[in-house]
Amino acid sequence: MKHKIIKRTGITRFRITFFILFFSAVNLFGQAEYVLANNPVYDFLERMETLHNIQRYNSLEIPKSRNEITIYLKEVINNRKKLDNADKKLLIDFEAEFELELYGTLKKSEKLIGGDHYNFLSQGEKYLYFVSDTSKEVNLFFNSVGASQAIYANYNEQGREISATVWQMQLQIRGSFFNKIGFFYRGGNGYIFGQREAALLKQELKYNYKYRNFGSFDMTTAGYLTADLGLVKVKFGRDRMNIGYGPVKAVLGNNAPIFDNLYLKMHYKSVEVSYFHGKLIGNTSYLNNTITGGSNVVQEKYIGYHRIGFNISDDFNIGAAEMIIYGGRSLDINYINPFILYKTAQNNNKDRDNSIVILDFNNKSIKGLKIYGLLFMDDIQVTKFGSPYWGNQFIYNVGFLSNNLYKIVPLDFQFEYIRIDPYVYTNRLPRNTFDNDGFGLASFMQPNSELFFAQLNYRFTNRLNLAASFSYYVHGANPLNPDGTIKKNVGGDLLSGHRSSDSRDAPFLDGDKEVTRMFSTKMVYQPFKDFFFEGRLQYKVQSLQKSINNKNLEIFLTMNFKL
């Protein structure tokens, strides 16, 4: 009996020790929610990464949790003296935004409801309402976020001008319990005045179902439940995810609607594992019914992703990932498992799906210079390497970010090259195409194309930023018949996969050559915290198929604010 008592006591001590060690990585005042993918803190941290002010940061996968962001901000705070004046002031802004996680206080935060010193023009962090109870480890934050955007376009070759104004308002709620369990909700409505053609220059309106069918639109609802357990993070719900380096994402970008997913991330020392499995919108058809009036029929479609990454050193990391696209059936338990090779599972499933392999690296060994690359392998036939065989489908993505002049002038320079082989993203089975509701999951780029992109970013102050970019985009489009059907499939359309009657050779940039040159400039001014003015000008010169030539000027003037 005595021996049993000692044994149980040992087990109890082991359990206590385990939980202490497991949760020791959790910030005492940590928040489990994630930082939205468009938050400027990501650009700031990428610059800090390049300058060696933070270690082992990787911008490949966004968003990141507030706890993760806080860890890196603490590193920057310790290196505050190394920052230029603009970044020192920008760091003060982030210290206010992440004050609770960094310092366990809300002294720099103001609330409109129930607050006694709310000032819309102040430099503090603003909320509609918040409650923070450190004794019960409960934090709730409410924000009202609004935007007004004026859109103008001049089509010089056609002698036409179009314009529209977009108003939108949304409510954001986030909170955490016990510093480990969190949630987020976002929803709202918008109104449009002016011409529909101009409004559709705004990408998120192109895939907004309500606007496409009814004229008005609602904000894309996002919401999730998350648990941050230090070494393991879990998130379930709907949130925007970006995967890829540089401004133009080769894997997941902002081109398509967001989707619901189950997300998992594990990180221990130099090894990082990430995974998600999500629900996409497949091919849609309309089923007419004289009694009920008919309804849309949407084909089941899913996406899976997992990646293992290694921090070879503080300044160099590599990773290998797989993706799977499948549809026409319910959830496949093979792909829900994070710890299985998708390619093997696909073969076991009788080769019905679309598997993808991705390799990536991120190197900032030279202070002030970050070099990155990504290889996206959609399909591989080793025996056909070096030939124009249609089944060898790759994306080559390389680029660099330079902050080498940081001590002299607050100027960043970025260059990126992306080449997408014919038939990449496509599939012979339409249900397996790399799209969501007909929109490419990555970017505007089509298969059989390449992009050269260069950008200069000048930071006048922490409140004023100017960026100028130039892109040269070449696309080999499928030649079309007069009625719009495909005359020859050269692998240049995301939604047109290879058919048995198509040529087995697909030379790069074959077909009708289309060229787009675009100069873009953007200025962002923040007169006081959480109130932004943004002006963006785009000038495009296009030579498209069917001898169409365009010279388009597009101007976007935006005001964003947060209460």
Summarize the structure.
The protein has 563 residues and is of the alpha+beta class. 16% of the residues lie in helices and 45% in strands. The chain has an 18-stranded antiparallel beta barrel. Strands 1-11 form a two-stranded antiparallel ribbon.
Number of helices: 10
Number of strands: 26
Q: Main β-sheet, in a few words? A: 18 strands, antiparallel, barrel
Structural class: alpha+beta
User: Unreliable runs, pLDDT <50, ≥5 residues?
Assistant: 1-28
State the end-to-end distance.
Answer: 65 Å
- Helicity level: 10-25%
Q: Work out the strand percent.
A: over 45%
Rg, rounded, reads 25 Å
Mean of residue pLDDT?
A: 89
Query: How would you sum up the global shape?
Result: globular
Describe the fold and architecture:
The protein has an 18-stranded antiparallel beta barrel. A hairpin with a 5-residue loop joins strand 16 (354-363) and strand 17 (369-379). It has helices at residues 2-23, 41-50, 66-78, 85-97, 99-103, 196-199, 203-206, 209-214, 333-336, 342-348; strands spanning 61-62, 109-111, 125-127, 129-133, 138-155, 160-177, 181-194, 217-218, 222-228, 232-238, 242-243, 260-268, 271-287, 295-313, 316-327, 354-363, 369-379, 393-402, 411-420, 435-436, 439-440, 449-459, 464-477, 512-528, 531-544, 548-562. Mean pLDDT is 89; it is low at 1-28. The chain is built from ten helices and 26 strands. The relative contact order is 0.11. With 563 residues, the chain is of the alpha+beta class. The longest helix has 22 residues, at 2-23.
